[in-house]
Amino acid sequence: MRPSGRAADALRPVSIETGVSAHAEGSCLIRCGRTHVLCTASLEPRVPPFLRNTGLGWVTAEYGMLPRATTSRNQREAKKGQTGRTQEIQRLIGRALRAGLDRAALGERQITIDCDVLQADGGTRCASITGGWVALRLAVNKLMKAGEVKMDPLMDHVAAVSCGIFGGMPLLDLDYAEDSEAGTDANFVMTGRGGLVEIQAAAEGATFSRAEFDAMLALAETGTAQLVEAQKAAIAG
Q1: Is 125 annotated as a binding residue?
Q2: Per-residue confidence (pLDDT) for residue 78, from 0 to 100
Q3: Ranges for the Exoribonuclease phosphorolytic domain (predicted)?
Q4: Is residue 124 marked as binding?
């Protein structure tokens, strides 16, 4: 039995509320159980120096946690400086979202996805990727409606989910109680068509087997497919 009472292949309740920021070109609040992340997309008519005069666009990301996103207060990173964990996560979000992007179709402009964790209960990077794609989609829709891009630069959905081995069993979408005690922890980033973008997997104690990895991958395929459906419902609304 999982601490939450969920089945091994069950996601936490997922909701994606769009249009939560009055000023951002695209925004959503994604809730995956008790993990809540505000995702905003900001359009800028510029690209990093290494892309100037190439005709290619860029999507990047920034990630942060509010001081009371967790059970005890964390000092703001604006005061203490970014941790290696924060830098690693925001690079992952950027890489993941660019995987579903035609940068030539986007043109020489940048979209920055800001992912601010309001409340954390495991899986914040995965929620940031899934919600970040929705914010990106909404921003791109504005570009297309204004006629600023001729072809849709988003080639596919991108979503992410965690899996792990907890109590000897492969489980989908770990919350903090499971993640903190898991023998194996993994994050899977996938496209809407089922393509693999990135896998992060680590044994926290004993090694894990190929059969256990295959079981986690199968769970991730099921979970990301459900998350993609949630993305579709959010942008349709």
Answers
A1: yes
A2: 83
A3: 11-139, 158-222
A4: yes
How confident is the model over 96-130, as pLDDT tens digits? 999 999 999 999 999 999 999 999 999 999 999 99
Residue 202: predicted pLDDT = 96
Domain containing residue 186: CATH number: 3.30.230.70
Structural domain contains residue 9: no
Give me the number of domains the chain comprises: 1
CB 192 within 8 A of CB 226: no
Region of residue 190 (left: phi > 0; alpha: psi -120 to 50; beta: else): beta
CA dist., res. 163 & res. 8, Å (int): 10
Phi-psi region of 178 (alpha: psi -120 to 50; beta: other; left: phi over 0): alpha
Alpha helices for 68-197 (secondary structure H): 77-80, 84-98, 103-106, 124-145, 176-179
Does residue 57 have a known ligand-binding role? no
Structure confidence at residue 217 (pLDDT): 98
Low-confidence ranges of the chain (pLDDT < 70): none
